[in-house]
Amino acid sequence: MRKGLHNGAKDAFSVLVSSPILIDSHCHIVFRNFDDDLDEVAARWRQAGVASLLHACVEPAEIPAIRALADRFPELRYSVGVHPLDTQHWNPQTQSLLRDAALEDPRVVAIGELGLDLYRDSNLEQQLAVLRPQLDLATELDLPVIIHCRDAFDPMTLELRQRQKEGRCPRGVMHCWGGTTEDMEVCLDLGLYISFSGTVTFPKAEAIHACAREVPQNRFLVETDCPFLAPVPRRGKRNEPAYVEAVASRVAELRGESLALVASSSTANARRLFSLP
């Protein structure tokens, strides 16, 4: 337990020592639909054994508010970056802004959420123009990347493979995994981790189920991506960090392992990748 935790975090310690320790490796609690009950949400994630959270950033204007959340909740760490669907927020000063934000606060442990998304947009060249300087920044600062990749696996992995050949491919995670086992092997060969979200609990998500069964013990994370993608049986409702327990439970079921083992493995993996306390 880190020094300086406020009373709420200290009070949760008695719960955490008797529960599987979990890390929600990707969440967005800065969104307005958490404004009215965030203290209750925090009480629930602590009750569920969630000891750390990694808050993903989608565009620079979020950074001050996410930093304030890290002040409020000592178990929170965060990333800085620009989402592929937010390319309008990139300008010539953005890379420097992200660099300064990362260097100013040791609680910044990743660059992202960055990547490519050709499901909701078709501006591949514009997305690549925003992706590439962020990958460069991650390499410069020796920080991992949080990758969003939707309907863009080939161009995303082409970019990473070229960088791997040149010795400048950052470590990182494919967040909210939705690919096949063949795709997963490509990502593992690139040195990436695979993160499972609430989609792993969906009954028809057979490809994701197969990946959860086959992913190496030391290369997977669990996440909520809240407020999106609430797991079964809360599908369609607002997601929150406490529900990462349902994600871990389903991964454990698919792997034929105990929740305690999946929790300890995913927690160790997240701590290793993001240098979490």
What is the architecture at the second tier of CATH? Alpha-Beta Barrel
Q: What overall form do the CA principal axes indicate?
A: globular
Number of helices: 10
> Which structural class matches the secondary elements?
alpha/beta
Describe the main β-sheet briefly: 8 strands, parallel
Mean pLDDT: 93
Span from first to last CA?
9 Å
- How is the CATH topology named? TIM Barrel
- In the residues, how many domains can be counted? 1
Ranges where pLDDT stays below 50 over 5 or more residues in a row are: 1-17
Largest beta sheet: what is the strand line-up? 1-2-3-4-5-6-7-8
Number of strands: 8
How helical, in percent, are the residues? 40-55%
Percent of sequence in beta strands? 15-25%
CATH superfamily: Metal-dependent hydrolases
Q: How large, in whole angstroms, is the Cα Rg? A: 18 Å
Task: Walk me through this protein's architecture.
By secondary structure, the protein is of the alpha/beta class. It has a single domain (7-274), classed as TIM Barrel, CATH 3.20.20. The protein has helices at 7-16, 38-47, 63-72, 94-104, 124-141, 153-165, 181-189, 206-214, 244-255, 259-274, and strands at residues 22-27, 50-55, 76-80, 108-117, 145-150, 172-174, 192-196, 220-222. Helix 4 packs parallel to helix 5 and helix 9 (244-255) packs across helix 10. The longest helix is centred in the middle third of the chain and has 18 residues, at 124-141.
Describe how the helices and strands are arranged.
Blueprint: H1 7-16, E1 22-27, H2 38-47, E2 50-55, H3 63-72, E3 76-80, H4 94-104, E4 108-117, H5 124-141, E5 145-150, H6 153-165, E6 172-174, H7 181-189, E7 192-196, H8 206-214, E8 220-222, H9 244-255, H10 259-274
Parallel strand pairs: 1-2, 2-3, 3-4, 4-5, 5-6, 6-7, 7-8
Catalytic activity: D-tyrosyl-tRNA(Tyr) + H2O = D-tyrosine + tRNA(Tyr); a D-aminoacyl-tRNA + H2O = a tRNA + a D-alpha-amino acid + H(+)
Pfam families: TatD_DNase
Keywords: Hydrolase, Metal-binding
